[in-house]
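seq as requested:
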Amino acid sequence: MSAMKNELSKAKHDLEALLVSLGEKSSLLGAGNLALKISDESGADELRLRALSSREKLEKIEKEIRRIRSLLSEKEEVERRIEELVASEKELSERRTRLYGEIGRKGFESYQKGALTDERFSSLFSEIVEYSDREKKALEELRDLEASKERSPLLKRITFGAKITLAKNNLTGLRKEQDKAYLKVGEALFGQELASAIVDPQLLTLIATFRESERREEELRGERSEAEKKRQDLVTQLADAGADKNSTKCLRDLDQKRVEAETAVAESDRDYGATLLLMPELRELIRKEGDASLLEEVAELEKKEEFLRTRIAALEAGIEAEEKREELEKQRTQLEKVKRKREELDAEMKEIKKRISEGEKELNRLLEAADVDQSSESDVSE
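struct tokens:
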């Protein structure tokens, strides 16, 4: 019987696999014949329309997923571009600030060489002249302190060390203030009021470089403005799709809906395909207008299914009969045991009855003997 059970298990496994394959073929059959014109009387057209509706729902969900992912990708690209533009603007702004200083320094050099003769330049550079004089004095003072320190005894050098540190800090502060003055001069030289009075080629080259940098920065600001408008438009579209705040959850929910819709499509295709297979007239219609080869594959699977079901039924009946035979054999064995037990009990009862009979006879004999003794004792007494 073990062999039969193993064969039954294999047959059921084969049937399950075959039914899965048959379901897949039914789905393919249903999906491949959605364009067939079927009479409403057959009931199949309702299933066909349901399959089409399921497909439309799935396509709509997939389209929405693609749209949201595209919007997110585009938004990420725009934001990356905005970051690049901001960085470029910052770099140009810093460069422009440096150019102001370079223009101021170059302008002062030209002024000192007599290349800028307009009276307005004297007033413009007066602050820088003052800082230059103070810087020279501070530098001379620092050098004198350093020289004095070298000539002084070891103990006095500590005092000079503090003075030198103070002098260096003073010099650094003056140079920072002077740099600010160069920036102010650079801005002034760049202005239209003084630009016409500049003739130094190197200074004019620096100013031209500055203007080009300013023009480029303006272009970047315009591009960034457009990018920010684009980003806002994308955010609005994502908000309309419910994906502006938590796009991951939105896509996860849509993906779950997609899975459900795919299941609905598979089920509706399978139901429609199975209905087509149930009706001979629809099978004939598919042979004429659909995929005849698929029908042949289905027919072959149906034959295998019929064979397996017959075989399974035969095996189940055989196993059941074998189990019944084993059960009857067990009952017969039990009956024999009961019979033997009964025979043993009958013999034991016979033996007990015999002993009882013998005991009763012995009891009667003893009673009779007791009566004789009592009679004899009575006679003696008289």
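The two ends are 94 Å apart (CA to CA).
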